[in-house]
């Protein structure tokens, strides 16, 4: 049976010539007519009319993104008004008047009213926070910061919330802190509220970025800028009273695969069963939770706070611990350097180097089977399966 | 029977292999088999040049040698005979004079081979010499005098005589 599709409906060209050698302008295909999809076309369907209405009405706000803010659908109502801007206008105008007044005058008035010290202090703190919030709003051009509800890019997916990413300033600052000021990665992570692994990744990527800039490679800066404009970012504001905004929870205990099993472990009531014991029950080599936590010094800080130590005392203790850690690292480095100087020799050859290391041949022990000894061992099979070999351990932990 | 410092090809790790030589530097009786159990294992020698772990691009390959320098020195001192290969290796760190030397001005450079500072003769500290008793002091002085003059041709009667 012949094909039912008429040849005129086939878009396929009628020639078998290669598309490369074929002439561009085929006389058989007609020139494309005027575009159906056009702003001035008025002859469209109802759906198309609706679309154009939306483009010129509520959808107009999405053409130019808000500066310094996300621009998601769920932040607007159906008429295209920014929801959080309306909320801001509903605030009490009396409060606004009070914020504009001089601080001394307010204090004097409160004294006249006969408020006690605690009450006045609370009010002063309240005013300070409100003032800083208002300054921030003014900085953003009168638009208040996004709330959780404004962070949903997909209106039908309520549980998807857009998470903030590191801003360019903050990334640069992390790099400067680690590379130029030589702070260790964990303290930088604790100070800036960014995960240790993220800090390390930022430092690595920034290093590559600087290297590329040195080499004169072109970076995709406009792309990065466009993406960062659309996403919520964690800022770094060095000139303000609160320069650091915590980025994420940093001290979450990672779930070790060994701890995923449920174990029924009978133990005596009189026994103190601590985290160390629990770790040993899960796995003989597993470290206790206090040591597996990413930033154990934060736990120490909190513990000192609960013990009731003063601020100065805590700082002093922290400094002592930092110094001890630094000394330990330096001592280890010095020891290693001394060992290398005394025990390692490299003799350059024509095509390769000979690397000599001084070792102790005494480590083989009395039976010549020491496990720490250098040198390949000689024909002595393990005897632990032999009859009569006593396998009682020689020491008990 | 002569004691020799020599290489012994070992099959470990991972069993015997062709084209994968690994040696122990051993002290053994001269007439025993090469791979038999030696008197003492003094170190290892990997004759295959390899890039060290964590090498940067452009680093040179190295032949890895581990050796107990003080033990080797002791055995050489009591008359153990190194094989040619071991002689070549030990002369690189200044335990022996090189057996074969290039002729010409290079010779001097070769003789100034590196030496492990831990195995250099220790200089007597002033604190030590102050605490020495008269007998120890006399013996030490004698030794020093001998060292200054050369080989020991001392009188059996007078220890202080050169």
SSE topology sketch:
The complex is a heterodimer of chains A (about 400) and B (about 160).
Chain A: H1 46-56, H2 83-89, H3 93-100, H4 103-113, H5 117-139, E1 165-166, H6 168-180, H7 185-192, H8 196-215, H9 221-230, E2 233-234, H10 275-282, H11 289-292, H12 296-307, H13 311-343, E3 344-348, E4 353-358
Chain B: E1 3-9, E2 23-29, E3 40-45, E4 62-67, H1 69-77, E5 81-82, H2 84-92, H3 106-111, H4 126-131, H5 134-149
Family (chain B): Belongs to the bacterial ribosomal protein bS16 family.
Protein name (chain B): Ribosomal protein S16
Keywords (chain B): Ribonucleoprotein, Ribosomal protein
Number of domains of chain B: 2
Q: What characterizes the major β-sheet of chain A?
A: 2 strands, parallel
What overall geometry of chain A do the principal axes of the alpha carbons give? Answer: extended
CATH superfamily of the largest domain in chain B: Ribosomal protein S16
Key phrases:
heterodimer, A: 397 residues, mainly alpha, two-stranded parallel ribbon, two-stranded antiparallel sheet, 13 helices, 42% helix, B: 162 residues, alpha+beta, S16 Ribosomal Protein, Chain: A, 2 domains, five-stranded mixed beta sheet, 5 helices, extended, Ribosomal_bS16_dom_sf (chain B)
